[in-house]
Specification:
429 residues, mainly alpha, 68% helix
């Protein structure tokens, strides 16, 4: 048997929830035995892992409070309360919308350790619940097994972000919540989660634009939500102050973008190339981002038309986070917590199809992303050891693209029409 045959996912038939690796009563005989023999212990074991990690994260924070990014949110929220400037002109510190300060504002009335611990636990609980729902939507029969394996991938990749209290965790949870809502055709909730995620971290704009382009039902809801989100700060401060902060935010975003394009400190695709010795000109970087953005949009429009609601929502999440990791100029190593559920999903489906070499490849990619700094500095200078995660994610993107291509090609025209029909039973949650 050739390597190509071993690595290629098979999609010989489709069910209401997607390709052949998605289990339905019609092909229940194909459910791997390991997913059933582990059903008695995987739910408890998975939640135990999350609980243990929560205790560990709280312990790390209380022992090493200096290792915290949440201080930036706290400082911005306190500055908001005092009517002071939240932004600087160095391209660091508070790099978010004013709404992110409002999100953290209630926690500034608590003692610092209490507020910061609550912030971390909120992100962890939200991510765990959204991830479990995501797994059960994609694989209703084997959702517990998927949640277990995806958790084993997600927790190591997210550990540093959990420890530092980064809003990347909250944004990832919001993105999973968006996918879950769209899979269930809950358009208002999908739009709400997009707006909530945008308040936590504006990087969700990639998913926001893809969803707005591909789901007509959420466009008006999303527009209304964004208007409300934009006006909310005016309810909490003087209008002149809010306008000034919006202006400072735009200047900060421009400076931040320029820093990300010119410095080899960031773990995006061109940052990896810069760390290895080639600095791509800014026009090349911008042009590539726009080109890949257009291709991603085209790919998702095809996905939305040809695949079921659950599969399309899953691919929406995967395409969004993969694009963010590779082409956001300010991607940091800890930002790769976003891509962890996507890597876990692809690993699980490879295992579900008994593609063990492909399963191992995804496990190795997850390991390389986790070891980005420790392994990378063995080859390059420590300050440039950011290249391994984006290169591993590039390989992941290629494998995911091959899987996506086979999946959409496996759908016949008749099945494609059924999926896209408003009256199709496939669209019923």
């Amino acid at each position: 048997m050739s390597w190509r045959a071993l690595l290629a996912p098979t999609f010989s038939d489709l069910t209401d929830d997607g390709p052949s690796c998605t289990i339905s009563p019609a092909n229940s005989a194909r459910i791997p035995a390991w997913t059933q023999t582990t059903r008695r212990w995987t739910p408890a074991a998975t939640w135990t892992l999350w609980a243990v990690l929560a205790v560990v994260i709280c312990g790390f924070y209380l022992k090493q409070q200096y290792r915290s990014v949440a201080i930036n949110y706290r400082k911005a929220a306190i500055a908001w309360r005092a009517g002071e400037d939240m932004y600087n002109t160095q391209g660091d510190g508070f790099l978010y919308l004013p709404q992110a300060a409002l999100v953290f504002l209630p926690l500034t009335y608590l003692p610092v350790p209490v507020g910061d611990v609550f912030w971390r636990l909120l992100g962890m609980a939200w991510l765990a619940l959204a991830l479990r729902r995501f797994c059960h939507l994609l694989h209703p029969t084997t959702g517990d097994a998927m949640f277990w394996l995806v958790t084993l991938v997600t927790l190591p990749l997210s550990f540093s972000a959990f420890r530092n209290g980064q809003s990347t965790i909250h944004m990832t949870a919001a993105m999973l919540s968006v996918a879950n809502a769209l899979a269930d055709r809950r358009w208002t909730m999908g739009a709400c989660w997009l707006c909530v995620g945008f308040a936590f971290k504006p990087l969700i704009v990639v998913m926001l634009l893809l969803a707005g382009a591909a789901y007509p039902a959420i466009r008006l809801r999303l527009a209304v939500g964004l208007v409300i989100l934009a006006l909310t700060p005016f309810l909490c401060q003087w209008p002149s102050y809010v306008i000034d902060q919006y202006g400072d935010m735009l200047r900060m975003l421009r400076i931040s973008y320029e820093v990300g394009e010119t410095k080899a400190w960031y773990a995006h695709f061109y940052g990896a190339l810069a760390a290895l010795g080639w600095n791509a000109p800014a026009p090349v970087q911008t042009g590539t981002r726009l080109l890949i953005a257009g291709l991603t949009l085209g790919a998702f429009l095809i996905t939305r038309k040809r695949l079921s609601q659950a599969r399309a929502a899953g691919w929406l999440f995967l395409m969004s986070v993969t694009y963010l990791m590779l082409f956001n100029p300010r991607t940091e190593p800890n930002t790769y917590a976003c891509v962890a559920p996507a890597v876990g999903w692809m690993l699980f489906e490879a295992a579900l199809s008994a593609r063990w070499i492909l399963t191992g490849v995804h496990a190795v990619l997850a390991f390389l992303i986790v070891g980005n700094f420790e392994l990378g500095r063995l080859i390059t200078a420590q300050e440039r050891s950011v290249w391994l995660a984006p290169l591993a994610t590039t390989v992941f993107a290629v494998l995911a693209f091959r899987r996506w291509l086979r999946e959409v090609q496996a759908v016949s025209p008749a099945e494609s029409n059924q999926v896209s029909s408003p009256t199709s039973p496939r669209l019923v949650a």
